[in-house]
Amino acid sequence: MAFQEDPPMGVPEWLVTFGDMMSLLLTFFIMLVSMSELKSEQRVALAVEAMKKQFGRDRQQVHGAQRMRGPKVEGPIGDKVTVQNIRPADKSSVGGTIHFEDNEIVLSDVEKARFRPAIVELQGKPQKIEIRGHASKRPLPEGSPYKSHWDLAYARSQAVMDFLIAEGIPAKRLRLAVAGVHEPVQLSKEAVARKGNNRVEVFLLNEFAESFEGTKEQRQERTAAPK
Question: What is the phi-psi region of residue 117: left when phi exceeds 0, alpha when psi lies from -120 to 50, beta otherwise?
Answer without folding.
Answer: alpha
